[in-house]
Amino acid sequence: MCVSRARASAVLRSLALLALAATLAGCVTTAKPVRKGPDPMHVAMYGPHPEERFPLPGMDISRVDPKYFRQQVAYQTMEPVGTIVIDTQNRFLYLVQGEGMAMRYGIGVGKAGLEFEGGARIGRKAEWPRWTPTPSMIKREPERNLQWAGGMEPGLTNPLGPRALYLYKDGRDTLFRIHGTSEPWSIGKAVSSGCIRLFNQDIIDLYGRVPSGTRVVVLQHQAPAEEAMPMAAADGLVPPAAI
């Protein structure tokens, strides 16, 4: 009797060990690694704008370098509040907010954007503008631009995107534009044509913050210092006043 009880006890212990091992094995094999996706804040920031004249779809931000997302940064400058400062070399546009801060936007820089330096003013603003290539753009890329010599109607494929800011100097159009883009992959890069392009969601944001007459300074060879801050810190900011 003692032998059978001992044997039965040993069998029970073995069964218990086997059950525990199976449970642990199940935990290991069913566990899934946690995959980190885009920040929900950025997903919302670059989401769709269905209320637009041409409903704007959300942007795929999975392959965008986060440094080019719209964000508030520390920025030291002598320019007054409300000034737009464009750093073409580092591919950033700053909207000066005062107290050492600015709203920073990533940009793509076209050939025309590298041919202008100094100060100007926003002489005109347009929502869903027409686009007409300049004679030099037609000459440089005739296969692409000649067909639009008479102008392209506004829409999602228009190179200017949903908004455009037209720069004037001494009362004359400089042909320098700040606008959206139908090629979001070009932000952060030098591109063959155009001036200063922003993500479509960013040009809509900038357009709403600046009035006509806003001062714009284009820098070609300066690398300003900045320090990113959480976007939440900028939520309550009032749009800058006109200068």
Written description of the protein model:
- The protein is an alpha+beta fold.
- The protein has five helices and eleven strands.
- The protein has helices at residues 2-30, 40-45, 135-140, 142-145, 200-209; strands at 71-75, 84-87, 92-98, 101-106, 108-109, 118-127, 163-169, 172-179, 196-197, 215-219, 226-228.
- Strands 5-9-8-7-6-10-2-3-4-1-11 form an eleven-stranded mixed β-sheet, covered by helices on one side.
- Strand 3 and strand 4 (101-106) form a beta hairpin.
- Residues 224-243 have low confidence and may be disordered.
List the helices and strands and how they pair.
Blueprint: H1 2-30, H2 40-45, E1 71-75, E2 84-87, E3 92-98, E4 101-106, E5 108-109, E6 118-127, H3 135-140, H4 142-145, E7 163-169, E8 172-179, E9 196-197, H5 200-209, E10 215-219, E11 226-228
Parallel strand pairs: 2-10, 8-9
Antiparallel strand pairs: 1-4, 1-11, 2-3, 3-4, 5-9, 6-7, 6-10, 7-8
Q: Report the radius of gyration as a whole number of Å.
A: 28 Å
Bin the helical content: 10-25%
Q: Strand count, sense and closure of the main sheet?
A: 11 strands, mixed
State the end-to-end CA separation: 101 Å
Number of helices: 5
Mean pLDDT level: 81
Which structural class fits the helix and strand makeup?
Answer: alpha+beta
Strand order across the largest sheet = 5-9-8-7-6-10-2-3-4-1-11
The residue ranges in which pLDDT falls below 50 over 5 or more consecutive positions are 224-243
Say how many strands there are. Answer: 11
Q: What string gives the helices and strands in order? A: HHEEEEEEHHEEEHEE
How does the overall form come out from the CA principal axes? globular
DSSP strand content: 15-25%
